[in-house]
């Protein structure tokens, strides 16, 4: 599949999936127009999609990533499902569709291997899904190929190893910010999760910690508060009163 979008124009079939209300989004139309001169393209209704048996030569372009047709296509073993932003990015950069499991909404995390630490199951699954939709590889385990660690709270073994090895540690807001930048951005601009604009989401040394300040006068408390916040603390508990 790696070379299909770039060098196999004669064998690849691009299917643009209409929404249930038959009104395609503007970006889906844009992707269709960009592809129709180079590839065999066809529009499919929801009903049409429910009848197809995808092959490895078929690529289905969906927007939004939801609905009956989308869910059916994702469930098909050989189905390749991408979003219009993914197709446009690959065409503009003359790159293959990332060789990772679909569905792929965009390519902002292409070539990244991401793992997480400290998140409850539901939050971790949400991060995993979003990373994968951005063409990233999600790993439950930390290993030598991991490029980024998303951190709920510093101090875990994964975090310590990542810091020792110089692997970037990121806050969960990084994943959200990258996604929002892709969705809100111009279709002619490629967004990468490693762009400099996402550097503010690097994990600070005290990220996620809850700090209690006790037995200190008010000026000292305020100084500590400022230092803690500068190093990533956003939840804080300041003990006040005669014993504070």
TrEMBL record:
This is DNA topoisomerase 2-binding protein 1-A. GO terms for biological process: DNA replication initiation; mitotic DNA replication checkpoint signaling; mitotic G2 DNA damage checkpoint signaling. Pfam families: ECT2_BRCT0, PTCB-BRCT. The keyword Ion transport does not apply. The lineage of its organism: Eukaryota, Metazoa, Ecdysozoa, Arthropoda, Crustacea. Keywords: Repeat. Residues 104-175 form the BRCT domain.
């Amino acid at each position: 599949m790696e070379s299909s979008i770039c060098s196999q124009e004669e064998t690849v079939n691009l299917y643009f999936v209409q929404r249930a209300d038959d009104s395609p989004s503007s970006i889906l139309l844009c992707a269709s127009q960009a592809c129709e001169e180079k590839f065999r393209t066809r529009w499919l209704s929801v009903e049409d999609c429910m009848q197809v048996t995808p092959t490895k030569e078929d690529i289905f372009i969906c927007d939004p990533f939801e609905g009956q047709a989308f869910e059916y296509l994702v469930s098909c073993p050989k189905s390749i499902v991408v979003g219009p932003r993914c197709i446009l990015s690959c065409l503009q950069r003359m790159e293959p569709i990332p060789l990772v499991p679909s569905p792929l909404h965009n390519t902002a995390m292409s070539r990244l291997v991401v793992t997480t630490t400290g998140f409850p199951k539901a939050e971790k699954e949400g991060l995993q899904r979003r990373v994968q939709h951005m063409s990233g590889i999600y790993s439950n385990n930390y290993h030598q190929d991991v490029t980024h660690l998303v951190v709920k709270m510093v101090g875990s073994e994964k975090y310590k190893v990542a810091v020792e090895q110089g692997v970037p540690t990121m806050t969960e807001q990084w994943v959200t910010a990258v996604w929002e930048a892709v969705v809100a951005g111009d279709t002619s601009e490629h967004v990468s999760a490693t762009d400099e604009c996402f550097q503010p989401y690097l994990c600070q040394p005290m990220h996620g910690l809850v700090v209690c300040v006790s037995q200190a006068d008010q000026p000292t408390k305020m100084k500590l508060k400022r230092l803690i916040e500068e190093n990533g603390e956003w939840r804080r508990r300041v003990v006040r009163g005669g014993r504070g």
